[in-house]
Amino acid sequence: MKIDIITVFPEYFTALGIGLFGKAQERGLLQVITHNLRDWTHDVHHSVDDTPVGGGAGMVMKPEVWAECLDELLGMKAETEETSGMTGNELGIARHPADAAPAPSPQETSTDARPILIFPNPSAPLFNQKAATELSHARHLVFGCGRYEGYDARIPCYYRDRGLDVREYSIGDYVLNGGEAAVSVMLEAITRLIPGFMGNPDSIVEESYTGSNALLEHLQYTRPTTWRGLTVPSILTSGDHGKVDRFRRDEALERTDRIRPDLIEALDCSALDKADRKT
Ligand code: ADE
Q: Where in this chain does the record put each tRNA methyltransferase TRMD/TRM10-type domain (predicted)?
């Protein structure tokens, strides 16, 4: 998978060289390129933002700088002010191969070599395991990190209109200073699902938020079985795998109901077994 990250703080992403993510790059499973948005500015101050149209606090990231950068990374032809309002038909040419096709459905993009453009945004739909799974099948992701009060709303619009798969995601109901931390979170959730990324692929099968059973995980313990007077549930040392599975499933259901009742509401009832229904 190729990953381009556009940011005004490229040094933020030096941590991507460590751990499994670093190893995946060494093995050629991931190719990560971080770009400094300021490299596409033309003024002496390398400014990427301006005051909001209509007034208000803070600064908004300028569309021209983003477009120059994105056009180059996406291999799209730059448009002039005169041509940009016109459709491909009006111009008599397809300005980009994607212009000829309607916006792809998420299903289509999973096997598509075309890049998926992702903007973290606190005002967007929540990023979740389903989105991470879908994006883990992509061949090329381009992340755009906003700063200040965000980016000009026409940027995602413009590329969506040209047939690109453009997504905006929030990673939670809180506001960060910029998109860099959100991109790190999304990247970790996405890339660990790529076949071959994890040392032990089994470790992603049983996890919370996975599959139609999206439950919180049961609790985990390791040795010693008694530590500072606290003993692990005896059933886990019984050697009876059927009872261990049932115990863990009941614990997962109970914890989910208590901590995240919304996940219980959203459960696919056909995924529940007879014993679950009694829990
Ligand atoms: N940028 C600022 N806050 C954010 C959030 N919660 N999610 C994604 N991007 C953001």
A: 1-76, 112-265
Q: Could you say which architecture CATH assigns to the domain 210-278?
A: Orthogonal Bundle (1.10)
Assigned token pair, 136: 């883990």
Alpha helices, DSSP H, located in the chain: 19-26, 63-74, 81-84, 88-91, 106-109, 129-135, 154-161, 180-191, 241-259, 261-265, 274-278
Closest Cα to atom 8 of ligand 1:
170
Give Cα 134 distance to the centre of its chain: 9
| Domain 2-191 architecture | 3-Layer(aba) Sandwich (3.40)
176 lines ligand 1 (CB under 6 A): yes
pTM: 0.86
Task: Kindly give the number of the ligand 1 atom that is closest to the alpha carbon of 121.
Answer: 9
The yes/no answer to whether this complex scores an ipTM above 0.90 is yes
- Ligand 1, residue 177: give the atom nearest the CA: 2
> What spacing in Å lies between the alpha carbon of 182 and ligand 1's midpoint?
6
CA dihedral 33, 39, 45, 48 (to 10 degrees): -70
**175 marked as binding residue:** yes
Average pLDDT of each block of 10 consecutive residues along the chain (279 residues)? 98 96 97 98 98 96 98 89 52 35 45 87 97 97 94 98 97 97 98 93 72 84 98 98 97 96 89 75
